[in-house]
Amino acid sequence: MSNCKTIAICNQKGGVGKTTTTVNLGVGLAMQGKKVLLIDADPQGDLTTCLGWQNTDNLGITLATKLIDVINETMTNPMVGILHHEEGVDLVPANLELSAMEFNLVNAMSRETALRNYLSEVKDKYDYVLIDCMPSLGMVTINALSAADSVIIPVQAQYLPAKGMTQLVQTISKVKKRINPNLKIDGMLLTLVDIRTNLAKSTVEALRENFGNQIKMYRTHIPIAVKAAETSSKGKSIFAYEPNSTVSKAYTEFTKEVLADGRKKERLHSHEAR
User: Fold this and answer.
1) CB 247, CB 228: distance < 8 Å
2) Which of 70, 73, 182, 274 could join 114 in a cystine, given CB atoms 3.0 to 4.6 angstroms apart?
3) Structure confidence at residue 1 as a pLDDT band (50, 70, 90)
4) Where are the alpha helices (DSSP H) in the chain?
5) Measured on CA atoms in the order 159, 164, 170, 171, is the torsion positive or negative?
6) DSSP string, 75-144
7) Dihedral angle of Cα 179, 210, 25, 4, to the nearest 10 degrees
8) How far apart are CA 11 and CA 166, in angstroms?
């Protein structure tokens, strides 16, 4: 059995720092010696462009290609088309072809588990798979949740997210009940935090009020910063672009929290195995 951990980075609201978190957590884990595969599960292809592949329409093999191969049982080499980034992470890219998958998946036999089936072919080569989900709860996102061991939810500090968050948590519960009984929420990560305001504090309080102790809040908060926004056009992580910035330090701390979670899970498993 593969020890790889698959994490979906998910929130149906856009602009909350999902892609930035996927890139910087992925590179952060790679810097700690982990083998990491990133999956761009958004037809906008933001993760793909963030990592420096600007012209996504010219990519021959993308996540859509992989899912179609699974549905049609035409997969020959699952590793073909995986891109390698200079900072030590691999990527299954995406482009607008993925939006047609919403329709293609609805009629497919393995419609909820196509991505899980694909990952089962490659994940033994990795320690972590991170899936950057699109800001909607359609079939591709359901596939991501079906394939994942757990979910990290980035939440923007300015936005009191009670309503949208409830919908997301309900969708995760449905997937858990129907398709993926081991799925869990690792935690909520507060992003785009402006330290000059008390919004972070009030957002945390609102989330605690609505979700009580059922969902962990990560201790690390990711601050808002101009430099962090610039990295997306440079094809680099914050670690390569601005290694001494507050955002870089925050993502280093967040990576440590995620690794500590992984170690906790391993200890639990070895204890259960005895």
Assistant:
1) yes
2) 70
3) very low
4) 18-31, 46-50, 63-72, 97-106, 114-122, 139-147, 162-178, 199-211, 226-231, 238-241, 246-273
5) negative
6) -S-TTTT-EE-TTSEEEE---THHHHHHHHHHT-TTTTTHHHHHHHHHGGG-SEEEEEE-SS-SHHHHHH
7) -30
8) 11
Give the pLDDT confidence of 238-258 residue by residue, as tens digits. Answer: 999 999 999 999 999 999 999
Query: Is pTM beyond 0.85 here?
Result: yes
Strand, helix or coil for residue 188: strand
Cα 189 to Cα 10, 21, 112, 129, distances in angstroms: 11, 9, 26, 18
**How far is the C-alpha of 253 from the C-alpha of 251, rounded, in Å?**
5
Output phi, psi for 220, to 5 deg. Answer: -75, 135
pLDDT tens profile 13-66: 888 889 999 999 999 999 999 999 999 999 999 999 999 999 888 899 999 999
User: Do the bridges between strand 128-133 and strand 5-9 make them parallel or antiparallel, or are there none, so unpaired?
Assistant: parallel
CA distance 44 to 140: 13
Tokens found for residue 160: 């009191």
- Full set of structural domains in the chain with CATH: 5-273 (3.40.50.300)
CA quadruple 171, 22, 228, 233: dihedral, nearest 10: -110
> What confidence score (pLDDT) does residue 121 get?
95
Using an 8 Å Cβ cutoff, are 24 and 237 in contact? Answer: yes
- Max Cα distance, the chain (Å): 54
| C-alpha dist (Å) from residue 241 to 20, 60, 227, 230 | 13, 29, 8, 9
